[in-house]
Specification:
alpha+beta; 60s Ribosomal Protein L30, Chain: A; Phosphoribosyl-aminoimidazole Synthetase, Chain A, domain 2; 2 domains; 7-stranded mixed sheet; 6-stranded mixed sheet; 10 helices; 13 strands; 24% strand; globular; binds magnesium ion
């Protein structure tokens, strides 16, 4: 008797998550939201907790030939804080677990933790636990972040409504372009170790890849001005891919405008230099860890003048589809490529 074998690449990462998700039974009323958003939501009586976790593997998620250990530590915390921010919650605690090989010295592990501690200070979170174990193949880091909010302050992927305005923070595409620069310099170095990498002129994009920020600042600001996004995600897999998630969860379509997409000058110039289309980098480049969210029309006035929030389009009926309006005014179907881990 032969057992059926399905390759993970056939169904993809999200297909795999969907398939595993179907077999999970929720047993507690306090488990308000399980798999399917940026973080899980747990009822804690007078407030809710959000919990999210990420696993980072050397050689898959980071390359120590160009990523300094303190940056790897910082990024491991930032990507989890970003998922807490994506729920419109405030990050409070993290746990950090690592697996290391004997290739790492005590000083190297301390360098990693220097970055973790810097991130804790930057984001205002406490490191409250974790585990350390040995690994046979490279460095593994797993961070779990816990955040808090009032129930009514949370923003899920599923709340976007027709006519809502789509907002993104910061600028996009930089982390992806930065990764291409780092990979190129690595190849140059491998071919000729006497060549020193020329990274001076790429500082913004390489920093976006190596040491991304998380937009916890935006969550605090939204609290202060009294805006609760109708839906929200962080941009880890690329803008187009995240928009598809919001559309699917909310049962809506979207229209976004090419000329409204925020791109940094260095990102644009470097993409052109590398023969890449800057708009493709903005739409499909991942790891920017900015926020994408939707707001109701009446909240627009409160955010209109914000220097770091960009209004890129609006939510429409599901039946009207997902479109990108190009600079020449043509509406083209939006495609989600995102990151493929398998
Ligand atoms: Mg996320």
């Amino acid at each position: 008797m032969s057992e059926k074998r399905t390759e993970i690449s056939e169904i993809g990462e999200f297909g795999l998550i969907d398939r595993l998700h179907q077999k999970i039974k929720i047993q507690h009323e306090s488990s308000l939201k399980g798999i399917g958003d940026d973080a899980a939501v747990i009822d804690a009586g007078d407030h809710v907790k959000v919990v999210t976790t990420d696993l980072l593997l050397e050689g898959v998620h980071f390359d120590l030939s160009y990523a300094p250990l303190p940056h790897v530590g910082f990024k491991a915390v930032a990507v989890n804080v970003s998922d807490v921010a994506a729920m419109n919650a405030i990050a409070k605690q993290i746990t950090v677990s690592i697996a290391i090989t004997n290739r790492f010295s005590v000083e190297a592990v301390e360098a990693l933790y220097a970055g973790i501690n810097a991130a804790c200070e930057h984001f205002g979170v406490d490191l409250v636990g974790g585990d350390t174990t040995s690994s046979r193949s490279g460095l593994v880091i797993s961070v779990t972040a816990i955040g808090e909010a009032q129930k009514e302050q949370l923003s899920y992927r599923s709340g976007a409504k027709e006519n809502d305005i789509i907002c993104v923070t910061g600028d996009l595409g930089g982390a992806f372009v930065g990764l291409q620069v780092l990979e190129r310099e690595k190849q140059v170095f491998l071919a000729n170790p006497n060549m020193q990498p020329e990274l001076e002129k790429y500082q913004i994009v390489t920093a976006r890849q190596l040491r991304p920020d998380a937009r916890m600042d935006i969550v605090h600001e939204l609290r202060e001005i009294g805006v609760v996004p109708t839906s929200m995600m962080d941009i880890s897999d690329g803008l187009a891919s995240e928009l598809f998630h919001i559309c699917k969860a909310s049962g809506v379509g979207v229209t976004i405008y090419e000329d409204k997409l925020p791109i940094d000058k260095q990102t644009f110039d470097t993409a052109v230099e590398l023969n890449m289309d800057p708009i493709t980098c903005v739409l499909n480049g991942g790891e920017d860890y900015e926020l994408i969210f939707t707001i109701s029309q009446e909240d627009y006035k409160k955010l209109e003048k914000h220097p770091d929030i960009h209004f890129i389009g609006y939510v429409n009926k599901e039946a009207d589809g997902k479109h990108l309006v190009t600079k020449s005014g043509t509406a083209v179907a939006l495609k989600a490529q995102g990151w493929k881990h398998f």
